[in-house]
Specification:
The chain is α+β, with helices and mostly antiparallel strands. The chain has 19 helices and 18 strands. It has helices at about 5-25, 45-50, 145-155, 155-175, 190-205, 210-215, 220, 225-230, 230-240, 250-255, 260-275, 340-350, 370-375, 450-460, 460-470, 480-510, 515-535, 545-555, 605-609; strands at about 70, 80-85, 95-100, 105, 110-115, 135, 275, 280-290, 300, 310-315, 325-330, 360, 385-390, 410-415, 420-425, 430-435, 570, 585. The strands form 4 sheets. Strands 1, 2, 3, 8, 9, 10, 11, 12, 13, 14, 15 and 16 form a 12-stranded mixed β-sheet that branches. A two-stranded antiparallel sheet has the order 4-5. The protein starts with a helix and ends with a helix. This is PiggyBac transposable element-derived protein 4-like. Pfam families: DDE_Tnp_1_7.
Amino acid sequence: MDLRKQEEQISKWLEEEAEDDEEGSNDTASETEDNVEEEIHLNTSDSEFSNESSEPEDGIIRPSKRQRTQIIDSDDSLGDIYETNSPQTSNQGNQRVLQSTSRFLYGKNQHKWSSVPRSATTRTLRRNIVHFIPGPRGEARELQEPIDLFRLFITDDMLQQVVTFTNAEILTQRNKYKHESYTVSLTSLSEIKALLGLLLNAAAMKSNHLPTRILFNTQRSGTIFKACMSAERFNFLIKCLRFDEKQTRDDRRKEDKFTHIRELWQNMINNFQKWYTPGSYITVDEQLVGFRGRCPFRIYIPNKPNKYGIKLVMAADVNSKYVINAIPYLGKGTDTQKQPLATFFIKNITTPLHGTNRNITMDNWFTSVSLADELLQSPYNLTLVGTLRSNKREIPGKLKNSRSRAIGTSMFCYDGDKTLVSYKAKSNKVVFVLSTIHDQPNIEVTTGKPEIIHFYNSTKGAVDTVDQMCSNMCVNRKTNRWPLCTFYNMLNLASINAYAIYISNNLRNKKKPTLRRDFVMKMGDQLMEPWLRERLQTVTLRRDIKVMIKDIIGESSEPETPVHSVTNVRKICYLCPSKARRMTKHRCMRCKNAICGSHNIDMCSSCAE
């Protein structure tokens, strides 16, 4: 049976039932009462309702005054309608829907819900209409090379700032060394790019946590690391990496705990939003960047793989897994502007999406009824789908779990633009999902689950997928400095977004994209190439390292000067007197000393002995 037709029949039956109650009932209750209940009166007096526990005169026990549940069959004739004191279910193929006889339901805080949906024949709501084309923007639409895509997010200007602050730290650190050498010399932009290239190559080969001595062992990790720089230089540069001015840090830290890397982080986020238009469906969730060192806002989440680390609230596109925005959680000192913490994060992280009618999918840490109302209003104009915690006071008690309720049943209630569904997945588990994009109690025929839950399951995993991609190909190395840990994660996110644009461009041009591992390795090689060519010009560089560099950048070795055969080189015989030495081509068979033919020997005396 068509669900839309079924809902019309439900509404029609409720209206007819209400009219019958008004005509035949002797109840003198007020007509303005919201909680409309059907009551059974069998020659009872008013005293029966004043004392429900008393026994009637005729000895017949009447049903108590309770809300009853209507069980509606899926036949075209609407079937039989049963009234029971406890919820029952009726199979609608694979569909199971419980409909309350009460037109209105109330939560613990007296939040009012309706059990009747709006008419399904109305046109599409304005909040569900989106006008934009998702995908890369501007010059990003034409880029194919990994290095060009990486520069969209981590620009040369940003890296030049890193070079400046790193050199300031190098000047401080090299005073601790007795002898000045190239290992403790100042760095340059091309060398920092080469360092990032090495980190990306280590991530692609899943060797980011290997000790440095193994990374720079040519028998175990190849020649790419040793050709780029020495192991000592690699460790020294990572030790000296800095992202802000150290002299003014203390003053800035009083206002912002994230000031060590705030400017670099915000520039990258701005670039994320500049070069890509996300789709209609966005996921907001949290990412925990693993870190166990000292950090003023390190948190503990027991159900995460890393458990300890830096929490990032992140928004990502559902289809492409492109990261749109990310905000670090700075602990209890976060200025929420007198708002709930979850509401503060949602409003701030969706700032670039305000007024676009996009849908935001979130988990129960963020979702609330008040947030759903606020997001529908200007200037936000966003819809919401998210799970709701069972302790929320807006949830009616009728929708919560009960022993008599069958597994797989669903109950719906409505409040303006909001729809709340209660689905019993297990005997001891009821899932509550709030939506402002759905307005009908539609059920998937194949699974028997509400359409709202299917929509939530299909749009909830974008941030989790990004987190998984960061773990599979991770730049992070062991460190006790949280700004460096954050910088590693920035490289992970930049490579993911670069690959998302690369995939979009190739699909639009009907080309087959390469694997992500090959994409990241090529990106690392392209970052290292300018530095390798610069290093190749070093006069004092060892010959074997020059050969490694030429193999990596694809240059053939210079042809060596041909060495003439020993027999073709004329030498002076060492046995002849100094005044009469003759030139000869003959040599000793063993030591190759020159021997002229006048001596008639094949080996010198020392070799013959």
